[in-house]
Model the fold of this input.
Amino acid sequence: MEFIWEAAKYTWAQYDYGRNLKENLEVLKTQMRELRTRESDVKNELNTAEVMHGKKPKGEVTLWLENVEKITSQMTTIEEDYTQVGRHFLCSPVTLGKLVVKKIEEVAKLREKGRFSEGLFAHLLPEMGNMPTTKLVGKTTAERNLEKLWESLMDDEVRIIGVYGMGGVGKTTIMTHIHNRILQSSRIFGITIWVTVSQDANIERLQKGIAIAIGLEFSHEDDEIRRSVKLFQALKRREKFVIILDDMWKKISLEKVGIPEGNACKIVLTTRSKNVCRSMNCQKIIQVEVLSREEAWELFKGKLGADMVLSPEVEQIAKLVTEECDGLPLGIITVASSMRKKDDVREWRNALDELKCSMTEIEGMNDEVFPILKFSYDRLKSESVRSCFLYCALFPEDYRIGDEDLIRYWMAEGLIDDTGDWEKKVDKGHTILNGLIDVCMLVRCKDDEVVMHDLIRDLAIGITRKSPRFVVNAGIQIRGSIGIEEFPEDADRISFMSNKIEMLSGKPNCPKLSTLLLRKNPLSRNISPEFFNRMNSLRVLDLSDTQIQYLPASVSNLENLHALLLNNCRRLREVPSLAKLKRLRILNLSDTDIKELPDGMECLVNLKELYVASTDRRNIVSCNSLVLPDGIVKLYMYECDLSSLPCLSHLQRLQTCIIIYSRSMEWLLPIRDDSTITSLPSIRKLSLGGIPNLRGLCEGVLLPGSFACLRYLTVQYCQVLENVMSLELFQHLQCLEYIGIIGCSKMEEVIKGGEEAMVEEGYNSINNNTILLPNLRSFHLVDLGKLKSICKQVIICPSLNTIVIKGCPRLKKIPLSLGNSTSDVEGEIQGSKEWWDALEWDDPNTKTLLLPFLKVGGQVGGRRMKRRAEEESEEVASTSRQQ
Done:
């Protein structure tokens, strides 16, 4: 315990941080050297045991290593700040001295924890869980295909199984069912590994995919043979396992990958080509059959919708339409989806004619499924929607595209009507996106992400080989330098996303080019100075997630640019003048190393979204003198506050505002001479984080309409904040959908006031002691150690479906009423049983609904809690009936 004692001595010496700063810093450096030595020893031991014996670290070891890495990064910041002591007002010796003493304590504790007296390794190896899968379509055919494959897996004489069939026939769907059945039969196979190979696969990608699946770390290993050896040793230790290689396009050497031979290893591959199965020496080759006529019709009807009743004449034509799909599930689904809610027999006859005559006329697109998919593409309701769909082909295969990112690309490209309100265009973008999902041209993979089926992406790429002219080389492991030969003169859009390109050379002549995606490339050797000189039509330039240090001056001449994306370019130090970029709508400079905003910001009269925040507190971007353009709707700032901006009148249209680490801000909206325009009437999302001196949202009385559109409010780690807002303001927030208050250590009440009736006439209320928030869906209170009160009034929130309350031990009352809500609410409430029993409730039904989500001592209440909740619910219902 000598380390703890050593830390305590320095804690006692904190009376004069400034005087002891230099001495304490040297102690901290010594402690850090010893900690890093221990870190190196732990990593070496982990690596050796992982390769030789397949052992994995315990969770506490992984967390310890993460904490060491974190404090190492903080140490770099401290040393940099020490060089600025006395030169910058943010680097005072007292403040830095306090931080150094604190870090000495933390390092001492980490050194103590790093002993790991009970060992470093976990007993269990990682294993993939059940995969989400869709229902098998075509019961008889699907089950026959499934059982053939299962029988082959159970055959000890069969090591490699090939599953082939045309695109869209359902190979991957069958394999997900097989994968989940294998997991349920864990006594047969010890572990199951799934890797999506894809068309542009290579040995390295396949090796890394398998490594991720088994938890083997060699992300920094550049040598193929060394990776192969590590994989071979790790896999050889498994008694019996299955590797599923989905969507193979060519022969791959299993030996080079590192997959051992022998019956202990079963390999199942799926492919569109029987020749691939033969080249891989598959001992069993299974063809996935198409659906029978009856199965196809049942699937088609199901995708039309259960509520759709077809007239006899339409049904007859619909069956002919189904037959044109040749029993291919993907084709049936897309065609049926495009015909939903169509009941005019003439429209059906036309659709049948189009489908019969559908000729792809696309180079290389001779698969039977492509005419069917092309039919669905042609029936997208407008040229704008078709253009938005094709744009998705610019992303790598199987790439998960964020909804918001995709819509911003569309807007910047002008694919969405370029007139009217910015937010209306965002809404229209979501409408287009949802429409593409509805007709199965895009697939929803998460709440805020979509992905393209690889076959549909192939169709889109095929279409864009001519007009519009796309060059798509995304995610295919291009290395080194690329030059003008990769940039055709007639190209409309070009994507080199997710490669290993280090340099862009020459001066390509691309007069029509409107989108250039270069994100997720090193670009460590930067870009030639004249590279953008002949790209005068460029609207979207994405260089995010690269290692560029500066931008070439030629960027300054891109006068038609609408979006300049430089986020996560952590080495970027300088951006040339943007004065000529008057059409720029979106500028993202977040998480870069720039210290000052570029010259010419005042000229960006069409700017709508500005991101200048950083997750690294060393990278402070000065924007206090920024003059915001009229009409800006999204502002993401760091070390800045609204009161420091020269003119607030332009914030009338601001819809999203995110401010983090602003040390000077006390009020979001302070009293000013121009206070009549400080009410943020259009704000929809407001997020404030790490603001040490924040006292509240508003100083003084607000005008009517203040925050009237606010939907999302989050306040995090504002350490002197005692309350978020007044009741007067709170009762105006009729659009509020989410409120989250986290880590505000001095907060005693969320909503201030309300001891007497304060609800104004004209607002939704049942009586003077209630506030109705009809749209509130999510309510989070986390780590508020001094919180005693949420609100003096009862908050009626009939739409609430998520509630989280954790780390609020002094909270005495939960004044929420869920109205007539049923059991659709979910959430998490942590606290002691004594705390829960002492809570006061205005609505007993709310307590009953929330009881199942109570965690006492870290455990969810479970069945006993649920049973108790049901009993209390019955008591409440009985009392209500008696009343």
